Amino acid sequence: MTGLELHDFGLALFTSYLSDQGGKLIAVNMNPENGAPHVAVENPQKVLLYIWVKTDLAPNIPVYVPNETHDVITKLSRQYKAIPSFASITISCAFPERNLIPKCGGEYYAVLNEFEEI
User: Fold this and answer.
1) Are 39 and 83 in contact, with CB atoms under 8 Å apart?
2) What is d(CA 31, CA 74) in angstroms, rounded to the nearest whole number?
3) Which end of the chain, N or C, is surrounded by fewer C-beta atoms within 10 Å?
4) Residues in a beta bridge with 93
5) pLDDT truncated to tens, each residue of the chain (118 aa)?
6) The model scores a pTM over 0.70
7) Nearest-CA neighbor of 53 among 108, 91, 106?
């Protein structure tokens, strides 16, 4: 999986999670230059969240670090009157003895490490 495929996969998993939680997807913005997908979501409490989603392979855990992407998310959050948030996802192969890198169409584990306002 390339880095962009990994981020696409993490975003797809996260939007499925949001749907299961009753969230309504408003828009998706993918910026391949910095590899940081973000998503705007309205939740059941009618609060608009602008979420920065970072995905990585285990054992790495993506962490929130203020940088240029944070500046963009803060600006867009203000523009749409949304709460800026961060989601960290780690993906690992279900059978580590076979291959440490998940393959498209293979079995995997996905962990939502954190999901919080920033």
Assistant:
1) no
2) 15
3) C
4) 108
5) 677 788 888 888 888 887 777 767 665 555 544 445 566 676 666 778 888 888 998 889 999 888 887 888 888 888 878 888 899 999 887 776 655 565 656 678 889 999 888 8
6) yes
7) 91
Eight-state DSSP code of residue 24: E
- Concatenated DSSP letters of 52-92: EEEEEETT-------SHHHHHHHHHHHHHT-EEEEEEEEEE
For tokens 């440490």, what's the residue?
100
CA angle centred on 64, ends 63 and 70, rounded to 5°: 145
- 50: nearest Cα among 37, 63, 31: 37
- 15-23, long-range: CB within 8 Å, 24+ apart, which pairs? 15/39, 17/112, 18/43
